Amino acid sequence: MVKKFGLSALALVMMAGAGLWLGQGGTTGALSFAAQAQETAAAPAEAPVVPDMTIGAADAPITMVEYASYTCPHCATFHSEVFKQLKTDYIDTGKVKFTFREVYFDRYGLWASMVARCGGEMRYFGISGILFETQKEWAASNEPATVVENLKKIGRTAGMDDATLSACLEDGAMAQAMVDAYQKNSAADDVTATPTIFVNGEKHSNMSYADLKEVLDAELAE
Hints:
The structure is a single chain. The chain has a single domain, classed as Glutaredoxin. Strand 6 and strand 7 form a beta hairpin. The chain is globular. The chain contains eleven helices and seven strands. The protein has helices at 9-14, 18-23, 27-42, 73-91, 107-118, 120-133, 135-138, 144-157, 162-169, 172-188, 209-221, and strands at 3-4, 53-55, 62-68, 96-102, 193-194, 196-199, 202-205. The chain has a five-stranded mixed β-sheet, sandwiched between helices. It has a two-stranded antiparallel ribbon with strand order 1-5. Keywords: Signal. May be required for disulfide bond formation in some proteins. Residues 1-23 form the signal peptide.
């Protein structure tokens, strides 16, 4: 069973700013962030760029896109049982160019994505792997402050300092831009559940490595 979309993008943005949420005390922080989002809507400014995160050879014969959430258990399973082997057999060998697109079911997933992106493209996939591998630990608490501290620990492991991590988590404009990008991309690709995979534009749902290998090998044989 895959995780299906539930919360609206707007609701997620209202809950987005981890630093604002914690720094101003729970609900007050959330309302402050909402007001900030409304101000942005009233007086448009240039939105931050939210680049696709991609690894693999630019000229690879197969382009693969995955939509997944850092709080989706099935996505964590996919990354432990499928992605690692995919990377070894197809990405690292120049056969697949892989793009990861984040899906946000809740504020924890959005905050995790903000930390992953905080390290830039060079650190992104390493942090992403840690987030999936330790999902049951960092996302287990019902306390936002605990989750933020858990995410900061992961960021520190990747070599970032607290000032950098706090700045990323408090970046309301980037949170808004990330949710906008997620909403635009998922609507364009008709993504309603995670993980969802596209292989050279063809849509697939969650699958085993053996099934994915069959799809990839068929593409390579054409």
